[in-house]
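1st attempt posting a full record on here, be nice pls
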Amino acid sequence: MSEVKRGRGYVYSIQYHMVWCVKYRHKVLIGDIDTRLKEILHQIAEEHGFTILQVESDGDHVHLLIDCTPQHSIPNIIKALKGVSARLLFKEFPQLKEKLGGGNLWNPSYFVATVSEHTEAQIKQYIQNQKAR
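the predicted structure (as C-alpha cells):
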C-alpha cells in the first residue's frame, strides 16, 4: 500500500492508473522498443518528480500506476510522458515513423482513474498481467 506523505500544511496519497494507446493500435511496443519505452518513462517521471510504481505494455498500449504530489496535474503528467517518449523513440528507432506512416506514435486520448488503498494491489496485478494476455 502506498504511504501517506506530508507537504507543507497538507497530507496526501495520490495514485493514478493511466492507459494510452499507440496510434491506430499498431503493435509496435515490442522487444527493444518496449524495453526502451519503460526506461524513458521512468526517466521522465524522475525528472518531473513523480514515481511510476508499475508499468507494462501489450504491444499497442501502455498501463502505468503513478504516485505523485498534489502539485502534479494529470494533463501535465500525460503530456510529459507521451510527448517526450514519442520524440525519443522516434529518434532512437526511425523505423517506427515508417510503420506509423510518418505520423504520431500515440493516440491523442488516454484513460485515467484514481487509485485507492483498496484497489492498488488489484491494479498492480492487472498491469503485471498485461503481457500474459
